[in-house]
């Protein structure tokens, strides 16, 4: 049986995070988790609405296409299922600063898919 997956977030490049925050605020998104670089500049800003969020990434090495995230309730079951399909994550799951467990996969075209779990 395939584990349940739901769209968690969309990550987008945002060279000027404050301008991007204002744009998404116009659509009713509100600031959530934020990560700053060593100089105090915004490196990552989540903008939330109705249980989903847009992740704005100011890091210069963010690919232009960004990535999208899928959320699962059970990372171990999800990884086992994906392994049966011949898919391996780019690295073992890691616990992020926001408390979420995450890992990445790369699709055949090179796009990144993030899988997160509580």
Quick structural gist:
The chain is an alpha+beta fold and 118 residues long. The chain is built from 2 helices and 8 strands. The chain is globular.
Could you characterize the architecture of this molecule?
It is a single chain. The chain has 118 residues and is an alpha+beta fold. The chain has helices at 17-25, 75-84; strands at 6-13, 30-36, 42-49, 52-57, 67-71, 94-95, 101-106, 112-117. An eight-stranded mixed beta sheet has the order 2-3-4-1-5-8-7-6, with helices on one face. Strand 6 and strand 7 form a beta hairpin. The longest helix has 10 residues, at 75-84. The mean pLDDT is 87.
Name a few traits of the molecule.
about 120 residues; about 40% strand; alpha+beta; 8 strands; single chain; eight-stranded mixed beta sheet
Q: List low-pLDDT spans.
A: none
> What fraction of residues sit in β-strands?
35-45%
Oligomer state equals single chain
- Percent helix: 10-25%
State the helix count: 2
SS-based structural class?
alpha+beta
Computed over alpha carbons, the radius of gyration is 15 Å
- State the major sheet: 8 strands, mixed
Principal-axis shape = globular
Q: Order of strands across the widest beta sheet?
A: 2-3-4-1-5-8-7-6
- Total strands: the figure is 8
pLDDT averaged residue by residue: 87
